[in-house]
Amino acid sequence: MPTPVDAVMLQQRAAQLGRRSIKTTSKAAALQMAVSMLDLTTLEGADTPGQVRALCARAKAPCPRDLGIDVPPVAAACVYPRLVPAAVEALEGSPVRIASVATAFPSGQSSLDLRLKETQAAVGAGAHEIDMVISRGLFLSGRQRDVVDEIRMVRAAAGDAHLKVILETGELETADNIRRGADCVLEAVASESDLGHGEVFLKTSTGKVSPAATPSSVLILLEAARAHYRSTGIRLGVKPAGGIRRSKQALHLLVMVRETLGPHWLTPALFRIGASSLLDDLVRQLIKLRSGRYASLDEVGIT
Questions:
Q1: Which residues of 257-277 are buried (b: 16+ CB within 10 A; e: fewer)?
Q2: Is 131 a residue of the active site?
Q3: What order of strands is seen across the sheet that includes strand 200-203?
Q4: pTM of the full predicted structure?
Q5: Which position among 39, 183, 203, 281 bears the catalytic label?
Q6: 239 catalytic per annotation
Q7: pLDDT digit string (tens) for the chain, length 303 residues
Q8: Which of 29, 237, 248, 289 has the highest Cβ tally under 10 A?
């Protein structure tokens, strides 16, 4: 049975959490935590190996050393499959993981065989994590069973790589549809007796469709992860992505996670934020807390 969503209560809860704040004494730690949970992303048609190498250098060292700010590396660098080898070379010896989009990102509109081969190719090239898109065409035409089967097949094709399943919540449109999409992921992994914590993530968006990671869509995924944990004891990860550009948004997400899932989920192993420009604002906020001034984008080494 589909899990119903009370849209009114959902909006009220999301708004309530959005008004919560983090104490000034804890803000620096929260900003650093957000950096450590970031999937630093470049997913443009003009991406080159040189751009990926620059992205990876920033992923390893988000803040120039001469500014004297202790900023941790990000969780992962996310690139297209063809550029995974450049990321592998640039991140050798680094704790930063390599994530790759796959399955005909962002549309998902290619044959299943090609999507599975692309997944296998990305993992074979060195990706630790695969960000797949579901077939929204199948889902919206009522073929949710086929969506579940495809997630299972991509999961198998990904092997030991962790899997983040992108629902593209902006195209699913309604709260009930978003929860049904999350339930497809839960069903796809329900039979995996050896599933470990954080091996599968629920992800909102590709970042190519608006709206993307709205507070209400993120809350739906957090609640789905909570339901899965209560029924199985396995913690699924959650990854909001798309339109997250300001530190204030990131801190609100951390509050949502803590209030909905608890402090155990406040780790890069279970919570990520997908973004390309958010890192600049996080670093500038950390500099302001230390020095009392906002650094320019040039100073923080924007790539």
A1: bbebbeeebbbbbbbbbbbbe
A2: yes
A3: 237-239, 200-203, 162-166, 129-133, 97-102, 76-79, 38-41, 273-275
A4: 0.93
A5: 203
A6: yes
A7: 577 887 888 888 888 887 777 777 789 999 999 999 999 999 999 999 999 999 999 999 998 776 667 899 999 999 999 999 999 999 999 999 999 999 999 999 999 999 999 999 999 999 999 999 999 999 999 999 999 999 999 999 999 999 999 999 999 989 999 999 999 999 999 878 778 787 999 999 999 998 889 999 999 999 999 999 999 999 999 999 999 999 999 999 999 999 999 999 999 999 999 999 999 999 999 988 876 666 666 666 654
A8: 237
What secondary structure letter does DSSP report for 241? B
Query: In angstroms, rounded to a whole number, what is the distance separating the alpha carbons of residues 189 and 194?
Result: 10
Q: What residue segments make up the domains of the chain, in order of their start?
A: 7-291
Catalytic hit among 164, 239, 280, 281? 239
Question: Which of 131, 183, 280, 281 is flagged as catalytic?
Answer: 131
Quote the tokens at residue 276.
Answer: 């390309």
**Eight-state DSSP code of residue 237:** E
- Tell me how crowded residue 188 is: count the other CB atoms within 10 A of its CB: 22
